[in-house]
Design a protein that fits this description.
The protein is an all-beta fold and 122 residues long. The chain is built from no helices and eleven strands.
Amino acid sequence: QAQLVESGGGLVQAGGSLRLACTASGLTFNQYAMGWFRQAPGKEREFVASISYRGGKTYYGDSVKGRFTISRDNAKNTVYLQMNSLKPEDTAVYYCAADSMLGLKTSDYDHWGQGTQVTVSS
């Protein structure tokens, strides 16, 4: 059974940085595309970034382009989200997701983590 566990969330001031990690088990990690999504209170879950199974292709949501970087280490079964120049509007629960196909929508992903809270203070 696939399991995704996020870590690295927390409280940071505007302009600061955080790195999220998501470690997978129960699946052949190097055969799965990975994605990061976020959900703020009262809002729909939003695409943040995704990466192909070997890391050769990456995609970003418009609101995070140039500030966030997705990467993966297949030897560690882990995907990362480096978040720089954080803004209060980045405050949300961040989820990682896995699927055999690379996608940009929540419906594209079969496996989800429980999420980690990121709070950016002004």
